[in-house]
Amino acid sequence: MGRSPCCEKAHTNKGAWTKEEDQRLIAYIRAHGEGCWRTLPKAAGLLRCGKSCRLRWINYLRPDLKRGNFTEEEDELIIKLHAMLGNKWSLIAGRLPGRTDNEIKNYWNTHIKRKLLSRGVDPQTHRPLGAATAPTAGHPSPTSAAPLEASSITDAAKAAAAAASMKTASDSTEDAGSRSAASTYDEHHPGLNLDLSISLAFYPSKQSSSSTEASSTTTATTAAATSNPRPSPAAASEADAAHPPFAQGRPVCLCCHLGFQRTEACGSCQTAPNPHANLRYFIPLQGGQHVID
DNA sequence: AATTGTATCAACCGCTAGTAT
DNA sequence: AATACTAGCGGTTGATACAAT
């Protein structure tokens, strides 16, 4: 029963990749795309296991990777996203176009931890070092019993919104026009506007057509919608059906607001019998104000 | 110049959720 | 329904580069 193993482990190379191996992998993926990693090594003539090929491609060879140092902006974004998500590196990376989870993880461990410690902040709890330890071990998660201060949540929301905005530019790099848009992102966003309400456009309600609200849901909402595309009105109403609190203007899970899939950041809003009971909510107000419930 | 210590990061390992058989 | 496997994730390790002595 089942299938054959993904690779002959006895006949696979390990360790650093050679230029030739890189070229083979690049050439193969250019010709055939990212298909089945299991069969790729053999098809590409590589003595590597599929897992290794996948990692090499994702972390190093992918053409859309952003090389070079992290910017101060990215630093702050990572800190804020980490405050909200904990060590969910892939989720954080998803909000930082051109960066990989591995890269961010390494960067966190080598730079940001130290940076936070020098600020007197615990890198795991994001609380002042002298402060009482959080009741839960590890990082504060959206479902954790040690939620961040309201201001931190709001900051994190803003950061994620900005990140989502950045991701939008990146996600659309398939075509040249979009690539251009991505490359000019910095020109058009010299200072990230983090003061955004990102609540209403994620699952746009047919009824919520207030122009004030529409104008207050700027780039980030578009980004959220992009990362969780719901293009048609039918889809929107479907979303309303799936998220009745949102459609009715009631509080909505912060994670969902930020554009995470329900299974991504807050599984509990999907699995908890009464998810509203143990999450913090983000109530959008007019004029970009927020209330943390 | 040689040695030792430290920082960085690519790659590996082990685990889990989802899926194919 | 049970089993076997894949893809993806986060933690850890090891090789290399660089800095200090």
From TrEMBL:
GO terms for cellular component: nucleus. Keywords: DNA-binding, Nucleus, Repeat, Repressor, Transcription, Transcription regulation. GO terms for molecular function: transcription cis-regulatory region binding. Residues 119-150, 168-187, 207-241 are annotated as: Disordered. Residues 9-61, 62-116 form the HTH myb-type domain. CDD domains: SANT. Its main location: nucleus. It is found in: Nucleus. Gene3D superfamilies: Homeodomain-like (1.10.10.60). Residues 9-61, 62-112 form the Myb-like domain. Pfam families: Myb_DNA-binding. This is Uncharacterized protein. It comes from Colocasia esculenta (Wild taro). The lineage of its organism: Eukaryota, Viridiplantae, Streptophyta, Embryophyta, Tracheophyta.
